[in-house]
Amino acid sequence: MKDRLQNLLPAARQVADLSPAFTSRFIGRRHEISEVRRALPKTRLLTLTGAGGVGKTRLALHVSELVRPKYRDGVRLVELAMIEDEALLVPAVAAALGVRETGPDPVAVVVEHLTDKRMLLVLDNCEHLLDACADLVHQLLRGTTWLRILATSRQSLGVYGEQVLAVPSLRFPAPGDSTRDIARSDAVRLFEARAATIRPGFLIDGDNAPAVARLAQRLDGIPLAIELAAVRLRTTPVEDLVNELDECLERPAEVGPGTLPRHQTLRATMDWSYGLCSPGERRLWERLSMFAGGADLETAEAVCPGQGLAREDVLDLMAGLVDKSILSRPEPNGTGIRYSMLETIRAYGRERLPAEHEHGLRRRYIDHYNRLIGRLRVDRIAPDQVDSHLRLNREMANVRVALDLCFDDSGDAPIGLEIASALWGDWLVGGALSEGRHWLRRGLALVDGPSVARVMGLWANGLLALYQGDPVARPSIDECLALALRLGDEPTLASAIQMSGVGALTAGDAEGGLALMEEALARQRATGDVHAVGLTLYFSALFASALRPARAAAYGEELVRICEAHDAALYRAYALYAVGMARWEQGEWRQAEAKMREVAAYYGAVDDRWGLLQCLEVMAWTAGARGRHERAARLLGIAHHLWLTFGTSPSRLRIQARSHEECVERARRALGAKAYTAAYRDGTRLGVSRVVAYALEDEE
Q1: How far apart are the C-alpha atoms of 100 and 92, rounded to whole Å?
Q2: Does the N terminus or the C terminus of the chain have fewer Cβ atoms within 10 A?
């Protein structure tokens, strides 16, 4: 089982998880590296500032790798370029930290998580969320002792105690430098390295050194501009390249008044690169700039064609953009090939997108992600659920763009609400309840009146609110049922009745809740909707376990059989958990423990920390039931750490509270206060990456 577990568990989110754009060799910056390394131990907030394309992100990531051993709890990267809504800033930071749910007070939960951490947090590309970043950083630093933050931004955050280091362009040759001096300058070394990937064997020598020096000077040593220029060596000798560049820079770049010279240089270089693209490549550049999270070939072929761009041309055009360094040159991996752009290049493409093309692109983009989410929903009883969930996770940055597009135009708001509602299972499995409710609230504010979209939006919002212990759950559930009754749509009404049953069960009304669940089941069985039947069986088994355990076990076992018939391994894991809870309530702790062991690996596979937390709780109870009180205390400590990340506690969940309190009391009595506290603290210190392995290692 442990070998299988290692294959299932995703890698921890570290700075080493770099996009293809940042995997090339780091060149130069000796002075800047030294300055950053010298400053980090002396300040709690260091901000690297500079123009777009100057290399702030690469410098921050490179230094982060160098200093990683100095931080006991590691380095975490938060890439903010893909976050356009400041309301999603805290959930993004929480996700990077492994805090999968941020509760009713998101910042407080993140601060609690970081209280005793010796960690470096890298916030990349803060400029478009400047005020929100400044406020969050202020609260994080005020509420923690050892946390250090390294930020990159085009301007400083303005937080008290901030130290700012301006990142200059790369050093370039001075007029009259010798060939040796030219070859040693950082800007020329970068050009030489990139040119060698275009023309193998390219070296700086006495013949080409003056031309390369002139090119580096004209580009002001800006790394991105140098890399875009180097691409032209595929078809143009370096001397001709400099002449082309001179002509380009003599024309005014398309920038506003007051733009700094280096910004003008980069913009002129971008204009030049754009001008060198074929008409088809330009159109594809513009349209791919819509994808905040990059895109694979299948997605590009689905969304980008139309209005002068043929589907069959997309592959060749993408290859052309890769050759010109507009798109990253990705390396194949287990998840397929994905293409992305540096944020500066993506922003340029968005500016170039013609207004007359934007409407059609917007429509295709929204429709594509609406269909994709329909296929990959985690609440469907189907094979390959883990793969579907992981694929959808990779698309979440683009899904956020689709939701923003929907909610920026009230005409598409119902579609946006449908998308947000369909994602309820992924919000729950991924622990992103706060983000899910953010999008649901936006949609519900725009979609009023009786409609299927509003009913299901209220359904999803009510469910997530129940998990958060938010009192707003009850009004959402009541309105959901009232609107469904007015509509008279049978599947929608069955779902609303089901959610009313969940609400009643969580309030302790066993008979009323189970009666509603049976009514929902009868309606869903009549329509033959196996997915709806499965979900009602799961909720019935889970929420009725403490009230009517025998009936709950029967619901769960029926769901297990359905999942096995449809080869739905992940859904089967949730069914087994519900059966295990019912068996615990029936006093059959050995069966309960066996179920929890079986499903823990699956929860780890999709990084479902909410599900894993529930397993750990039950495994602590069963450890206590067989007299392993030290292990029970340690498991409770692990669970406590996760409860904190969710901003809640077992006392707020009716199905958990009694068994949790009894387990704590038995362990304290058996071990004594001192030994119990020591074991408990050992558990709180166990890293998340080791949790599942520890939970499974005690097999007997």
Answers
A1: 10
A2: C
pLDDT in tens, 79-97: 998 888 898 899 889 888 8
**Helix%, strand%, coil% for the chain, nearest 5:** 70, 5, 30
DSSP character for 295? B
Mind listing the pLDDT tens digit for each residue in 93-117?
988 887 765 556 788 888 988 888 8
360-367 own/partner pairs: CB under 8 Å, 24+ apart: 360/306, 360/307, 361/287, 361/290, 361/303, 361/304, 361/306, 361/307, 362/405, 364/302, 364/303, 364/304, 364/306, 365/290, 365/303, 365/401, 365/402, 365/405, 366/402, 366/405, 366/406, 366/412, 366/415
pTM for the structure as a whole: 0.83
CA angle 290, 291, 295 (to 5 degrees): 135
Query: Which residues partner with 150 through β-bridges?
Result: 46, 122
Q: Which two tokens stand for residue 531?
A: 């997915």
Stretches in the chain below the pLDDT threshold 50: 1-23, 255-260, 699-700
Q: Are 118 and 109 in contact (CB under 8 A)?
A: no
Task: Return d(Cα 122, Cα 46) in angstroms, integer.
Answer: 10
Q: Which two tokens stand for residue 651?
A: 């006392």
